[in-house]
Amino acid sequence: MSNTPSPPGPAPAPPPPHRSWGRRLLAAGHVAAFAILGIVAGLAAAVGICLWWMDTGSGRAFATRQAEANVLGLKVEGLSGLPFHPRVARATLVDLITGKPWLLVEDAALDWRLLPLAHRELAVDALSARRIWVAQPAPSLEPPDGTVKDDANPLTLPFSITVARLDLPRIELAPSLAGGQGAALSTSGTVRLGPNLDGDSRLTLTQLDGGAAHGELTARFTAPGLTSHGSLTLELRGQEEAGGLVARLAGHPELGPLTLDLTGSGPLDQFQAHLDLKETPQAAKAADGATVTPRTVALVADVGLARPKGKAKRVTLDLKAAPGRLLPDNLAWMAGDAATLQTAATLADDGTITLESLDLAAAFGRVTAKGSLKDKDGDLTLRLVPAAPEALSPAVPGLALGKLDAVLHTTDPAAGKAGAKKQRVVTADLTVEELGYNDAHVRHLTATTKLQEDGTRLLLDLTSKLQGLDAPGLPPALTDHADLALTGALDRASGNIQVDKLDLTGGIGHLTGSGSALAWGRQAKGSLKLADGELATLMALANVGGTGGKEPPSAKPAPEDIITGHVAATVEGTMADGVAEGTLSVQATDLRTGQPTEDALLAGRAEISGKVRATLDGKDVAVTPLTVRTGAVDLAGNVTLKDNTLTADLKGSGQVVGNPASVAAHVVKTGPRLTVRDLAAALGPNRLEGGLDADLDRQLATGKLAATFPDLSSLGALAGVRLAGRAKADIVLGAAAAAPAPTRPVRQPKTKKGQAAPPSPAPARGATQGVDLKVVLDDLVVEDQRIHQATLSGHVDDVLGSPRPNVTLAADGIEAGQVLVNKVTAAWRGTLGEGDITLALDGTTGVGSVGRRRAFQVESAGHLTQAPEPRSPKEARGPTVARLDQLDGRLDQTTLKLAAPATITVAKGSVAVKGLDVALGTGRIRADVALNGKEVTAQVEATALPLALAALADPALTLAGTLDAKVTASGTAANPTADATVSIHGLSMQQLAVTLDSGATEAPGTPPEATPDGKPAVSATVANNPANATGADTTPTKKKTLEVKNSADRRLNADATLTAAWRGGRLRSTLAARTADGAVDLNAEADTPLALNPETMSPVIQGPVSAKINGRTELSRYNDFLAASAQRIGGKVSVDLAVAGTVADPKVTGSVDLIDAKYENGGTGTQIFGLNAHLVGDARGLAVEKFHGDTADGGAVDLSGRINLGDPNAQEKAPVLDLHVTTTNARLLRTDPITAWVDSDLTLKGLMNKPDLAGTVRLRETWVGLPDKPPADVADLPVRYVNGRPRQPQGQMSAAGGGLLVHLKVDIKARNRIYVQGRGLTAEFAADMQARGTSADPQLTGRVYLVKGDFSAQGQTFTLTKSDITFTGDSDPLLDISASATKADFTAILNITGRLSKPTVALTSDPPRPQDEVLSRLLFDRPISQISALEALQLAQGVAQLSGVLGSGPGILDNVKRNLGIDRLEFSSAAVGSSAFGTVTAGRYINSRTYVGVSQSVGGTGTNVTLEYALTSRLRLNGAVGSTDDTVGLKYQWDY
After folding, report:
1. Max Cα–Cα distance, the chain, nearest Å
2. Model confidence over 584-604: pLDDT tens digits?
3. Region labeled Disordered — which residues (predicted)?
4. How many C-beta atoms surround the C-beta of residue 1204 within 10 A?
5. Residue 1460 sits in the same domain as residue 1508
6. Model-level pTM greater than 0.85?
7. pLDDT of 1192-1204, one tens digit each?
8. Distance CA 1277, CA 1030 (A)
9. Number of domains the chain is built from
10. Residue 735 CA to its chain's centroid (Å)
11. Residues 1531 and 1425 grouped into a single domain
């Protein structure tokens, strides 16, 4: 401060008193304190006033308004006690949508303290409410627009909350919240919750319903807070009686008492929790009164929460569960009692959720999965492996699965981009193994699908592969594979659909297509194309499920019902305004139906095309035009459907099996009425015409069809059978008379004559369909059977229901095999289920065979009753009964007559023949047989039965003698018994007669020429062939009868007796056969095991066996049985054999001796004599110790080895051969054309019925003679079999019938010395061939090749330069033959190539010349320009024969010879310098040995007459008388 004096002026006032700075501050503080106190006092006064005001009427009203304004739907009543002890008499919350209250709180009270708020704590001393009522779950509190605000901050509170006492004595839940039954609860406890949700809370929940529904739950929760570290403790324990609230909330009020224990502890980054839920089992009474314990619930789970430092949060779950009654029975069975679930997942800070593993194991199988998800991008891999294929069927009935793998991936490139259109892409890969559903099964299925969003469009891309599909009715071709590809798009906004590509490849072929639709299908267009389709597969696919219940879907079609071929088809069309229009085109090629008729109509191809227009309701359809084209027929027409009327006009024409064919018809169908008009069909000259009107509902039709078939051969060609003759048929359709109602057959009372009385008439059931028909056949030929004339006429009622035919058949001149039926009449009257049958016929058996002819007549009548079809599959069908009332017949002089009516009854598992008593000639046969399941009763007795009846089975088996037999049988299959005695008296073969045609002719019936002694030269027989039914030449012919027989003392004439007894699984039998003179004396006895399998009724032969056979026989006594095969045997056989041991291991002792035997075969010329053999029995069978025979020219045949007995229980029941055959210089073949000497070394091994023949055959020397063409009057006699072929020789029968089948592996070799002579050929050949295959189908391969030789033709000699004949396995070898002839200035070359059946002959030369020029120089030694007219004629014939124009038939000169009646006609040129033109030579064979000829010079004077007589086959006597010289001499001809 400055002490400078103030400036001069008036005098200043006196200064104030002086104060210190401390006092000043104190004064300021007092002022401030009083000010603050004033403010605080003011605020306190204000707060106090506010708190006082809140408990006033206006304050409570204000608080109520504020609460109701901030909580929508809240209504508060009776608010008091504000602010520290508020009370609410009633608070209600209303659902704003329904307007109904859903929460009601009554008498609620809250006691809290104000001062703890200073410490940020809401301290509640008590919170209570007398009653709380809850009607439904709380409504959603989300904003109306559905948006949810993301809050990245964790949930926190502004202060901590402490509830010292929570007391809610009654909480009522509405039935909708408590499992359909209301519930009342109470809860009490304490709650402490910090700002970060940390705290420690304890609650007790008690159910107040009482009784069995009582329960209690205690919970304790201690948490460190979500944003702080520390320990979390969780305890939750409770129990509930049976049928409690928890059970009802779970929807299973039937559950028993439940206990719950949930504990958990640990920090949040390493937390573990354990859950244990159990149901106490309680026994219950089942419907049948039994005590059962139902399945119970058990659940044990361990949960882990972890977050390693710096890593994502991780959750693990390990669960073991028995769902008990929580699941339906089918699903509970799949889960089992020990299902486990193990899973682990992580949650990263960037929101990525990763499913590390999921492993679910249960009774049904196992499921594993893994994947991840971030925003909208994710992937999932899933595998399902059922424990068994049918393990999933409880959830999906009929499902079977082997394994399933799935991979799912989703992504959205536009995610997070504002304004971008949706581009989500979802792809799925699926692999399924062994998938089945009901009867369908797929071995392997893979599929890849891509679904992409493009704004409002969905884009689809699908590919799939299927393998091993198997389903009922599906053809095998579909079970292989199928590949599908499909791409397209769907616009969800506009409803437009686009199919860009459809591609299906599989058993049906290759199917492609595309199309589009607008506005959800209001308009559409598209196309489908099929290529490389298999018709059989498509037809089988179309027929799946279309059997109508008549056949199971798995029924396979018969081979003849399968149509094969390749199909291509195209379908294109559009649809708009309810109308569809399109075109159809189908082409089928390589068609084969297996039916000759259909194949002839199709001719391998078919095409169908047409334009279709139809409304979608199907009321207006038009196909115009419809065109059907096949390889044989073109069919065109129009088909329309309008106003429920179908109209079709069809016309077609073409060429079928070489005949013009046509068809036409006009068809109209209105409702059930069907009209066919102007029906006309023609094939060649055959016509079918008519029309009809039908009521399809009533199944009635009226109309007429007329058929005239003047030539059945074209219809036979169409049907694929040999058919000839004429036919005419008239068929009239109409309503039949009322039919009796069907009744089940009942036992009818017998009339006086023992026949069943007619059934009583039943009520009529309305008109039915009837048919009147008359069919006439003339000169009918079907394959090898012929019918001269046949007429079928009558009427059939109720054709479509239970037909009742009344028809008659009359026919004559029927040829069937070796039987000629002169006349037959038959009639059927009744129904198809029951009717009377009559049959009468007469004819001849043995026609065309080597056996004698036998006339026969048969007349029969009877009654047949068939039970109707059962009404249900469980109902058994009744028996079928055939009653034979009359049977009269005759076979030559042997008569047949039924003594009394007999019945035959056939039912399921049973057959019975009762009262059969037939007189056969002097004999009689009686039989009663019943077979019922596994039980049999039989008694058959025959007395003096003629053995000649064997001709009925085989006309060539002409036996003589009689038979007596008695057979009885009874018991069951497990224990059968039988006795039999059979005696044969005077067994022999009747005399055989062979009828041969001769060359001479005479009128039928003319007595034969007489020999000098007055006896007929031959016996004349003329076949009685009505109306020339065989189509043979009717020129009168003379027949020669050749009898082939033994002398009377060399015939068999044997007696034989067989006895047998079958008991206890053993068959004991004896056989004795002998002749009066002792030439045959054989005895045998056997004791063998024989039983039946009771299930299959097949024989079982096991156990010990013993048998003996001894005696002797002269082989010549059996020659009558070999006469048909032109074979003869002689010598003796002595046998003394015994068999012991078991069936599987028999032991043979004894021997068989062949003594001074011989064998002759007239067909092959084989002769083996001096045959001696000795066969000895041993442990395995028969051993051949000696077998030797001689042939002509010093040859020999030897055999060694053995014959082993086979096991009759083996699959192949036959002895086993092991034989070695050798021949040395054996002349085994000697016929007119061929003689052969053979060396062979062969083995015959294997089963006797199909042995293997292997080894080598060497042709030591072979002569083959090619006979010259016989004279013209010696005609080739063709073999004509009348009514069938004769009996085959035994060897042929074996091959044809399959009794003996020899497998061939034989090599045939000849180094040379195969000599072939005749018809101008003289040559020597060699061979190297192989015989393979079987005796029934031999296959010859290899070649025969030339050694040397020449060939003479047309008077010229050709030298063979090459001749190869190659066999390729069939009967038509390849030829490669070359020959040449050399003249002065050229060489002629003759080549023969090609198949033997159709050779190609070529004549060339060197230097080259025309063929006729070459032949002219060969024949006449001069050019063709210099030959005469007669020489030109002979040259023309030679050229024609060589070129194949005339083939092997007669030439020009042959026709001249035939017209002149001569055998020889030749033209030869004159010698050079002669004045004559040449020489003509003509001659005739007087008989087979004598020839007379004459030669005349043309233009000259020389004439000669010649005579030639054959003394032997090689020595001839010649003589000639002529104008120039006379000669007589001998000529010996030896062709080399």
Report:
1. 225
2. 898 888 888 777 777 777 778
3. 738-769, 859-879, 998-1037
4. 18
5. yes
6. no
7. 888 999 999 998 8
8. 17
9. 4
10. 42
11. no
